[in-house]
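Components:
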Amino acid sequence: MTPRAHISLYELLSTVRCRIDETFPLPVWVAAEVSELKEGQAGHCYMELVDKGEKDRLPRAKCNAVVWRSQWGAVSAHFFSATGQRLAAGVRIMCRATAVMHELYGFSLHISDIDPSYTLGEMERQRRETIRLLEEEGVFDMNRSLPLPRPMQRIAVVSSPNAAGYQDFMNELEASPYNFACELFDAFMQGAGTENSVVEALERVAARCEEFDAVAIIRGGGAQSDLSAFDSYRLCNHVAQFPLPVLTGIGHDKDRSVADLVAAISLKTPTAVARRLIDGMDELWDWLCLAGERVASAAQGFLSTSGERLQQQALMLSRHSSALTRSLEVRLERYSGEVLRLSGAVVSARRSQLDRFGERLISSALALLASARSQLELAEASVAARDPRRILEMGFAQIRTDSGTVYGSSALSVGSTVEILFGHDAARATIDKIY
Amino acid sequence: MEKIGYSQALAQIEAILNKFQQGQLDVDTLAADVRRATELIRLCRERLAKAEKEVESALKEENS
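Structure:
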């Protein structure tokens, strides 16, 4: 059997290599995203570059790339100084590369330069996109609108235990006079895993959020830090919507990351975050002292006012009671005067009555006596008028015998003797005849 | 003088005066009636003066 017409793999790849060499004889600028990066022991840097679709973000092209040791030092240093971040997986780059096809090692790009301005632009684009999305969703100001708890003492710390910033943070808090309760939620703070790691740590904190007053996201490194993860939509969305106030100390010099913008409080360094927490406690302490003084002063004022009021009331009571006493005394004096006056009037009336009685007694008695006297005088006159002596003096005579006054001849007999009485004398006669 | 109330004394005085006013003259008892009435009037005056003094001293005690 004769073999089919064919070419060897080597011939095939050699042909491909020739075509590539012909097509791209000079280096070209290629835009791609670093999906893997590894520095080899020899000092070369091996990467995997990927090109993701604009919409679905799924890889649509992928290849290996290398930066030789001779260029890697300069390229990476220039990139780092310009962008503030290291070349790592997830970073979008614009690289000048030569397309190389090797029959044994396959296709790869040999990178001779990387333009950091493209990455900066990409970073800015990502940053703006994140801000736009957060604003569009209305969550941009959510964390900043949370009221800050007082005291802010139980802190969930999202950081790396080995980071210098974390140690600075803890040292600063421990040196303060306050008893902060910090719990570390371990997370990668740099490199490609930062976004996922920080988000995962935040989720662990959120599950126990009632145990904390605030979250501090901190890392050392300052201006040289890689901030791109803190501009990512996912991480920033978590920070913006976090139920506790978030304090960031992730290091920034010129531009603040989006995480800084949406966090309740953002500061440059972990030490500054610690200082801010301590300042908050200082303020609270001062406030408590002032409040204590105010309470004491208010209590003293109240007591003093109450005392004065009591004194005033006592004075008023005394005034009122003395006024009442005086009015009662006046009334009693009036009553007393009335008693005296009325009793005097009664006595006087009685005395007049007795006087009148006395006068009436005298006048009545005298009248009675006068009446009796005149009665007697009348009687006397009457008696006198009837006196026989007076009658006899008028010429009449009374004839009497031994038996008494003779009122008729029947009491006489002839020859008897009678006595004739006249006014002033008498005579004896003998009866010689009776008619 | 026997113990007699002011009102009783006054009633007796009035009775004697009424008797006098009605002309019920009894010369034998006239002087005795007048003496009696005079005595009762004196008694009443004394009672009155005493009561007056007591009122004054009671008011003095109250005021002091």
